Amino acid sequence: MRLRLFHAPTVAEAMRQVRAELGDEAIIVSTDKARRGDGVEVTAAIEQPEPAPAAPPPRVNGTVPAAIAAAAHDIARALAFHGVETRLIERISLGVMAGDGDPEALLARALAGAFRFRPTPAAAHGPVMLVGPPGAGKTATAAKLIAREVLAGGEVQALTCDTQRAGGLEQLGAFTRVMDVPLAAVESAIDLPRALAQSGGRAVIDTAGANPFDPAEMRHLAGLVTAARVEPVLVLPAGGDPREMAEAAAEFAAIGARSLIVTRLDAARRIGGLLGAADGAGLGIADASMTPFVGEGLHPLSPSLLARMLLGDPNRPHDRTPPSGASHE
């Protein structure tokens, strides 16, 4: 089922738009006053020729149950607020319309069907390399991953390839000294295999920020990835333009990134860029940083937690941190 949201001065004009774009078979899901300004918003749906989703909710006379229709309308508006592209809203809405439950549960189920969720593995299973654009928060994220290992009682070493930026080594060193974790600087791709061997493979690797649209910088980063023989994890800050984030993510995916950590979720009202990046580059959604404090760590992003954020009060992004010990599923 394809779901569309129409804006018009009157219901009659909105209905004309519905018929013109979706045809006479369109189902009117809901009609409401426009959230901003004058006019109305009409949510309409039409069956697609593609296979129907599993376990669809019961329909009477071709209509969607009222509770599901209302929830789908509210979810579509929330996703639009967060800047999610229309085509992606429609795909998520398809999953929403096929489910049952409250809006948060409906959205969580739809997100689980539309995206892959894969928390960042512990360094005990192999080195973790962080990549991303300048200012994404890789160094703080590296510190949080190291803290996770230390708190779990594991041994880990910090490696940094960010040796050219003023203060890059000192910033990570300030964190590792507090945690009594050894830190080594890696000057080039040639030195990286030896440093990893000395760490026993239990390492978190910080890299310098790379401009995803600068071929020379991306070639240098790709050389580090090849030398380390690891699957790098992309770090991106929340709040960016979804298309821009998707294009940047695709460049990092081209050098091997398969999952995404999102930072600064506590300081961004609109987080649709997270979905745009994951969808545009085919990345698994891993963890989130919702506080600048290293001790607060990272939170695995589950479908239910992400749904809660997307439907929560955007004026209080700093409240997104789950309570201590809360389940993310």
Features:
single chain, alpha/beta, three-stranded antiparallel sheet, 11 helices, 16% strand, disordered C terminus
Tell me about this structure.
This protein has 329 residues and is α/β, with parallel strands linked by helices. It folds into two domains: 2-114, no CATH class; 123-319, P-loop containing nucleotide triphosphate hydrolases (Rossmann fold), CATH 3.40.50.300. Helices cover 40% and strands 16% of the residues. The chain is built from eleven helices and eleven strands. The protein has helices spanning 11-22, 66-81, 86-97, 103-114, 138-151, 168-179, 192-198, 215-228, 242-253, 272-281, 303-311, and strands spanning 2-8, 27-33, 40-46, 128-131, 157-160, 183-185, 203-206, 233-237, 259-263, 284-288, 299-300. Strand 8 (233-237), helix 9 and strand 9 form a beta-alpha-beta unit. The protein is elongated and about 70 Å long. The two termini are 27 Å apart.
